[in-house]
Design goal:
The protein has 167 residues and is mainly alpha-helical. It has one domain. 69% of the residues lie in helices and 7% in strands. It has a two-stranded antiparallel ribbon with strand order 1-2. α1 packs antiparallel against α2 and α1 packs parallel to α4. It is elongated and about 60 Å long. The chain starts with a helix and ends with a helix.
Length: 167
């Protein structure tokens, strides 16, 4: 199994969860849903169901694609624009290809983390519209954002660890 297989499978699973949940909840949502909430969890923006779901799907496709494209695009930019620990080592011609492949793998992991965040945000929106009287559960939002932050910090630390040691 290639090194790329695990993050790709995880990303595919994240998308499966996202699209499965969106499909399973679509018909249960009211025709007009609260789609934006103020700092206190009160709705202050509404969309029709189809537009809100289409927007969420678009974000779930565009944001991860952007993450992967930017990091995969490192091969097409001058080496001086790539900021890595020990850049002279990692971006030397004999190691550049493997370093860029590692960046691509890490970008796919981070893209999956973003899909999971969007799945959680959709879940909170669905819950607010179906069970919360259109009020967003702030405790669950804080938990979701904390998990995302912890995941992002972990991702950064793993990325730095990968490139901090000269092999």
């Amino acid at each position: 199994m290639s090194k790329l297989a695990a993050p790709v499978v995880f990303l595919a699973g994240s998308y499966g969860l996202f699209f499965g949940y969106v499909a399973a909840t679509y018909s249960a949502l009211p025709a007009k849903i609260a789609s934006h909430f103020d700092f206190h969890g009160n709705p202050d923006g509404w969309m029709d169901r189809a537009t809100a779901v289409d927007f969420m799907i678009a974000v779930a496709v565009i944001v991860p694609a952007l993450v992967i494209s930017v990091m995969s695009g490192a091969a097409r930019i001058p080496v001086s624009f790539i900021n890595l620990p020990h850049p002279d080592h990692w971006l030397a011609p004999e190691r550049r290809r493997s370093a860029l492949a590692a960046l691509r793998r890490y970008s796919i992991w981070f893209a999956a983390l973003n899909v999971l965040l969007l799945t959680g945000l959709h879940w909170l929106t669905v819950e607010a519209n179906l069970h919360g009287g259109s009020h967003l559960n702030q405790v669950n939002l804080v938990i979701l954002l904390t998990l995302y932050l912890v995941g992002t910090i972990g991702w950064i630390l793993l990325l730095l660890r990968h490139f901090s040691y000269i092999r």
